[in-house]
Amino acid sequence: MEAEIVSRTKKKQHVEELQKLGAALIALPAATLAALDLPAQLLAAVHDAQRFTSHGALRRQVQFIGKIMRKIDPEPVRTAVEAITNQSATVRARQKRLEQWRERLIADDAALTAFASEHTGTDLQAMRALIRNARKEIAEQKPPRAQRELFRLIREFSEQE
């Protein structure tokens, strides 16, 4: 059996991928890291990297994390990080849709009819009052209290479905 020859470039690319994965781990909050079930040495190195403020120290720590990851199977870690990233992207997309509804409702009277047809059980009277107050706040350049209330109401009606 011949051993497969891996070029130096491929080895470097693999190391850089592991370092990028390590940098993604560093960006995660501590509670999320604890839920990932990482090896103790890797978890300690990531926690250390999160404390560093010096660019050089952080760069060296990312290289060290990459070295640790060469000794373990990185696929479960990669899969978990991708799942977390996709989950937060879904949350951001939902948030954006809700904000777009709020903007449409404030800008156009016909949007309330469209919203009510999509979301059954909508309290139209409360929505109209909040839209009216939000428009007034915008015109008078007041803090967006009614706009926030309108957003909360839109979120509640969207979650009911």
Main attributes of the structure:
about 160 residues; Diphtheria Toxin Repressor, domain 2; 2 domains; 8 helices; about 0% strand
SSE order, as H and E? HHHHHHHH
Q: In terms of per-residue confidence, which ranges show pLDDT below 50 for 5 or more consecutive residues?
A: none
Binned strand content = under 5%
CATH class of the largest domain: Mainly Alpha
**Biggest pleated sheet:** none
User: Based on the structure given, which CATH architecture of the largest domain is correct?
Assistant: Orthogonal Bundle
Q: Could you say what the CATH topology of the largest domain is called?
A: Diphtheria Toxin Repressor, domain 2
Count of alpha and pi helical runs: 8
The CATH superfamily name of the largest domain is: PSPTO4464-like domains
Record field, number of beta strands: 0
Number of spatially distinct domains: 2
- The end-to-end span amounts to 60 Å
What gyration radius follows from the Cα positions, in whole Å?
24 Å
Structural class: mainly alpha
Shape assignment? elongated
Percent of residues in helices comes to over 70%
Overall average pLDDT: 90
Question: What does this protein look like?
Answer:
This protein is mainly α and 161 residues long. It has 2 domains: 65 residues, Orthogonal Bundle (Diphtheria Toxin Repressor, domain 2); 67 residues, Orthogonal Bundle (Diphtheria Toxin Repressor, domain 2). It is 80% helix and 0% strand. 16% of the residues are buried.
